[in-house]
UniProtKB/TrEMBL annotation:
Gene3D superfamilies: Medium-chain alcohol dehydrogenases, catalytic domain, NAD(P)-binding Rossmann-like Domain
Protein name: NADH oxidase
Domain Alcohol dehydrogenase-like N-terminal residue range list: 34-139
SUPFAM superfamilies: GroES-like, NAD(P)-binding Rossmann-fold domains
GO molecular function: NADPH binding; oxidoreductase activity, acting on NAD(P)H
UniProt cross-references to Pfam families, sorted A to Z: ADH_N
Length: 380
């Protein structure tokens, strides 16, 4: 057990020996200032967006876990792909964990901080893989009494991304969306949100079982990329919905070209192409993930009226008025048990997060393998 005046922090360090080292380090429980609170972290998910900082693209299959309890550590060799991820962090311990939930155990003298004392809160930070975290009171969103930290642990990254996608579609006057990796946690949330918001959503999945899962949740348009009729099915879905905006989690390989090509084929059903330049229907793909790290290419068959760009939630939120961002955050938290509910494959302690068999599982790019860290579990 830990000293009552200290807590554990998970650190990720890239070393000069070209390895990534994950360790649990003891740190004093912080003391809050006027407008600050200290949260006992009780649930924090391992999202795909956490993995680049946590693991730096290391070869975890060659990793080794040693020690036990608070002395657990994990070491794995870095790869050629790791070079860009470690450029500015060599030898410097990095704290990870973008979102989570827990209980406020101490508060500064400020009114906002005192109002949170003893409350369960959801937070978005960047260093939540720890037992205790000091935060500004303004970073905390109080939870309803009936909501558990586990239910609210993932109420920011994926819910806000789904809300951001719908927000972006409306800003661009689009009434339909194409989404890849649609059976992911985010994809399921986006499907529920689009059903509520009456936005047509074309869901692209990789397996028949994923298509069945989405249809069981009410999805109207589901296309399976493993099907021999994938492109024909996608063209038909785009034709029915006029979905000329896509959000892509894959990023590499042929996916982007396939989507743009199917959009152009659908557009040609109702628009006359301008010779070799294609139709004037603008086709937009926003890339928000890199499940495939290969480069992507776009061939001439998609015409000339298209664009591909990155989609970053913080950049979008920075363009919105603060009142609108606050409104979206409140909705994310208030619907955490309905529209934005999450499912986790396993709940683990900080020490268990450093076990190789768990790392191999939670670092996979597959659907349904998301893990939840509960730092408040006893570390033996």
């Amino acid at each position: 057990m830990n000293s009552s005046k200290n807590g554990l922090v998970l650190n990720s360090t890239a070393t000069s020996e070209h390895t990534i080292e994950l360790t649990l380090d003891s740190a004093p429980i912080p003391v809050p200032k006027d407008d600050e609170v200290v949260v006992r972290v009780e649930a924090t998910p391992i999202n795909p967006s956490d993995l680049a900082l946590l693991l730096a693209f290391a070869d975890v299959s060659q990793g080794i876990t040693s020690g036990s309890g608070a002395a657990t550590r994990f070491s794995a060799p870095l790869t050629a792909e790791s070079d860009s991820a470690i450029a500015n962090r060599l030898g410097v311990p990095q704290r990870c964990g973008n979102e989570g939930a827990g209980t406020v155990i101490s508060a500064g003298s400020g009114q906002a901080a005192q109002a949170l004392l003893g409350k369960k809160v959801a937070v978005m930070d960047g260093a939540l893989y720890c037992q205790y975290r000091k935060l500004q009171a303004s970073q905390c969103v109080p939870l309803e009494d009936s909501t558990t930290p586990q239910q609210a642990a993932a109420c920011f990254v994926n819910p806000m991304t789904a809300l951001g996608m719908v927000e972006q579609a409306r800003r661009k006057n689009c009434t339909a969306i194409v989404h890849t990796a649609a059976a992911s946690s985010l994809g399921l949330m986006l499907n529920r949100l689009c059903l509520v918001e009456n936005i047509d959503l074309v869901n692209i999945v990789r397996r028949p079982s994923q298509a069945e899962q989405l249809r069981s949740e009410g999805a109207r348009y589901v296309v399976d990329s493993s099907s021999d009729t994938f492109k024909e099915d996608l063209v038909e879905a785009i034709t029915q919905t006029n979905a000329y905006m896509a959000f892509d989690a894959v990023g590499g390989g042929s996916y982007i070209n396939d989507i743009l090509g199917c959009m152009e084929a659908a557009a040609r059903r109702t628009h006359t192409p301008n010779g070799p330049y294609g139709t004037n229907v603008h086709k937009q793909v926003y890339v928000y993930g890199r499940l495939d790290t290969q480069p992507f290419m776009v061939d001439l068959g998609v015409g000339f009226s298209w664009s591909v760009e990155g989609f970053l939630l913080p950049a979008l939120l920075a363009e919105l008025k603060p009142e609108r961002v606050a409104q979206l955050r409140r909705r994310a938290v208030s619907e955490v048990k309905t529209t934005f509910r999450s499912r986790f494959a396993k709940e683990i302690s900080l020490a268990q997060a450093l076990q190789q068999e768990n790392i191999i599982e939670y670092s996979k790019a597959g659907t349904g393998a998301k893990y939840l860290i509960n730092p408040s579990l006893d570390v033996k």
